Amino acid sequence: MKAAVFAGPGKLELRDIDKPVAGEGEIVLKVGANTVCGTDGRILRGEKSKGIDVGVVLGHEIAGYVSEVGAGVEGFEVGDLVGVLPTVPCLACFYCVRGSEHLCTDSKIFGYRINGGLAEYVLIPREAMERGGVYRAAPHLTPAEVALAEPLGCVLNGAENYRTEVGDTVLIQGAGPIGLLHAQVNRLLGAEKVIVSDPSESRRAVAESMGATHTVNPLEQDLTEFVQGLTEGRGADVVIICIGRGELVNQALQAARKGGRVNAFAGFSKDALAEIDPNLVHYGELIVTGASNAGRASHEKALQLIGAGLIDVKSLHTHTYSLDDVVAGIEFAQSGEGIKVAIIPD
Ligand SMILES: [Zn+2]
Ligand SMILES: [Zn+2]
């Protein structure tokens, strides 16, 4: 079968490899879609190679149809549409034992250590099956919608940290796929005002169609003034940084009200530093949190919300590439045009 193999830093090769076979306790999926995320671009540009085994098949936003069921597997049948939590937690480390399996220090991740979804078929190994991060999705969904449960699960995990309350004003920096998911989730959580800040006019328009009540171009308008103008001078209850650029951090702290919650959701590049005015945290009693990854509960909830039509991920899927064009697809996903690219094998 065809598969996109990580061949060392900055190298992705489309190769012919053996089609996997389901052993005892395992299933094989015929990949329906693997959506591309920013991490894939960082891998392709050689900015990320740590933790990724040379020779692994890339792709961690995976959905597919069961094509083979190994002996002893219950609850899955050939033809089922399945979504996969890419992280297989160890369930034994300090964090797993304390209920934070998304912070597992000994996890195995599809597309990093376990062969991922940028291939015609993907094996779901026994440990992934046993640890329960493999879900049957509502059959009316498209595979791309099911694959997008991965980023949505991460967003839901972030929401547990920033804790939006009914009636809140929320500022989201960045109208990429992640910012658009946060916008929708915050409307569901009862935020009254969801302000999305992004320099791109077309992305701001998409944000308005996906739950943003206000949008702003931060290059043309002072963000803090804009937010204060909507909050009687206080600032936002919650600010979510969805672009990994250091200069946005102080902007986020400035736009938050006293006692507000600021979430560094985006990943920053490896050596990034951010210059901040620490008195904003001190006098403002700000609560600054982060967000990394998702556990099984977040992924399952994401699939539930997508299946129930409460979160629109279908409109996020704007472009499709075949497996033969995987490199072009990942490059296009970094261009800022379109929203989410899905790689769909022929
Ligand atoms: Zn991802
Ligand atoms: Zn663990």
From TrEMBL:
<feature type="domain" description="Enoyl reductase (ER)">
    <location>
        <begin position="8"/>
        <end position="343"/>
    </location>
</feature>
<dbReference type="GO" id="GO:0016491">
    <property type="term" value="F:oxidoreductase activity"/>
</dbReference>
<comment type="similarity">
    <text>Belongs to the zinc-containing alcohol dehydrogenase family.</text>
</comment>
<protein>
    <submittedName>
        <fullName>Alcohol dehydrogenase</fullName>
    </submittedName>
</protein>
<dbReference type="InterPro" id="IPR013149">
    <property type="entry name" value="ADH-like_C"/>
</dbReference>
<dbReference type="Pfam" id="PF08240">
    <property type="entry name" value="ADH_N"/>
</dbReference>
<dbReference type="InterPro" id="IPR013154">
    <property type="entry name" value="ADH-like_N"/>
</dbReference>
<dbReference type="InterPro" id="IPR020843">
    <property type="entry name" value="ER"/>
</dbReference>
<dbReference type="InterPro" id="IPR036291">
    <property type="entry name" value="NAD(P)-bd_dom_sf"/>
</dbReference>
<dbReference type="InterPro" id="IPR002328">
    <property type="entry name" value="ADH_Zn_CS"/>
</dbReference>
<keyword id="KW-0862">Zinc</keyword>
<dbReference type="Pfam" id="PF00107">
    <property type="entry name" value="ADH_zinc_N"/>
</dbReference>
<keyword id="KW-0479">Metal-binding</keyword>
<dbReference type="InterPro" id="IPR050129">
    <property type="entry name" value="Zn_alcohol_dh"/>
</dbReference>
<dbReference type="GO" id="GO:0008270">
    <property type="term" value="F:zinc ion binding"/>
</dbReference>
<dbReference type="InterPro" id="IPR011032">
    <property type="entry name" value="GroES-like_sf"/>
</dbReference>
<keyword id="KW-0560">Oxidoreductase</keyword>
